[in-house]
Amino acid sequence: MSEIAHPHFWENRYQEGTSRWDLGQATPSLMHFLQSPDAPPLGRVVVLGCGRGHDALLFGELGYEALGVDFAPSAIAQAQELAQNYDNPARFLERNIFDLSTEFPQSFDYVFEHTCFCAIPLNQRPQYVQLVHSLLKPQGELIAVFFTHTRPGGPPFGTTPAEIEQHFSPYFDILTLTPTPHSVPSRQGEEHFARLRKR
Q1: Which residues are CB-contacts of 17 (< 8 A; sequence separation ≥ 6)?
Q2: Domains of the chain (ranges plus CATH)?
Q3: Which residues contact 82 (CB under 8 A, 6 or more apart)?
Q4: Of 33, 37, 141, 142, which has the fewest CB atoms closer than 10 Å, so is most exposed?
Q5: Tens digit of pLDDT for each residue in 124-139?
């Protein structure tokens, strides 16, 4: 299995301070969405590959029952510390996301994705789709900010809207899949915001 599928690869990145995917804040596209009239009703949400927890903390701050999951110990420790410091109800678990299916079957109204799909080995993408489907309640939604860059190599591995549709459309209705203007400057034009509803 690829080195990037193991916790030590990502833990080392956190330890070395080379976690460039960490914005130090919640994902701008998510902030915009949750503060818009289209924001979904309050419910239970899991953030996959949550890193230091900024997105889960935003959900928690706004009243969602939020759980962040990552397998890098440093990331989870820092997320828990932030939650404690800000008296935020979001919870965090140190887990491999692919072990969640048996622990949390059909348990969430929403799954949130940002810089997780792009970080896993390419051959695990079909498994990732099945994971998200298994975690969601009937009619639950995947809310995602996909990294749709076209640079070679990775991680982060790029993707395209067509590939996203190919992977997800057999199991989800694609409600939204559009370029987002609400990206940090270094990712402008390289992200798509998506809402996908479980069939």
Answers
A1: none
A2: 46-198 (3.40.50.150)
A3: 52, 53, 54, 57, 88
A4: 37
A5: 999 999 999 999 999 9
